[in-house]
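Usage

Read records sequentially. Each one opens with the input sequence:
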Amino acid sequence: MKDIVECRARLRGIFNITVTPFHRDGGFDWAGLSRNIERVIGLGFDGILIGGTYGEFPAMTADERAQMFRHVMEVVGDKVPVMLCSAGSDARDVKALTELAGDLGGLPMVTPPFVSEVTDDQIVDFFRDMAPLSKTGVLIYNAPGIGITLSPSTIERLADIEGIVGIKQGDLTPTVIDQIANRLAGRIKLFCASDLGFLGPMMAGFDGISSTNSGALPELILKIFRAVESGDGHLARDLNRLWYPFRAVARSLGQPQAVKAAMNLRGFDGGSVRLPLRDLVGDDLDSVAEMLAALAADPDAGITLAR
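and closes with the structure output:
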């Protein structure tokens, strides 16, 4: 994407949160990452998200993240929009990665600075500093998992900053989603941050979702999203019920661990997680295998297992 205008025009639909496949020694599996990207683009996903929380960016150095940005954009080119997570606790790293992401034609995704006792005014000033650095604009990531949850009123203040093109909303409380959908729709692009509960935000009028579990279940989750998009709520509901047991396991065992395990079981390039996360083994891995087997046995899910 060459500028903010193009970014705003193309920012919609279902984005695969592409896991970062590591070798057991912690090194990057660059070939596996490329295959994962090419798979979801080939299936028809509208975009990809690289190096987010489930892409394990906190376990990477700034130099590693920059190398990953460059590799991904060489693979993708201009086929689909790419969100590149440039979040961090050190504002110097965030600035450098945000500028690089925009220069490469991606959309930098930035969280509030996750430091103690930061105020709303300081968060707004932080985004005012970051937004002009990227020629494609900046996507806000409201990520409660980092310990800061942006309120709807703060998000409205951020939406007024020139260069803010959208938000990836992680607080999926129904009343919050209702406020955001009805007060910010049309001003900035609205993305649901989780596929574990995206039907509500999409029905409320969000522009798209980012999906981690589509690394493991790309066919099914894409089918559910397209049903919502076409207005077939009954089909979306029925298909979404099919993978509830998998969602329950993922919530229990953690993401991206469960997703990577399921990808490996399907013959995809899930790879390993980096410390402090641990790969699933034993009964936990068996639970993921059982969920996949149950889905593969249901023709409506469209899931096949590796032979």
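Summary fields computed downstream for this record:
- The domain at 4-232 is CATH 3.20.20.70 (TIM Barrel).
- The beta strands are 13-18, 47-50, 82-85, 107-110, 138-142, 164-169, 189-192, 208-211.
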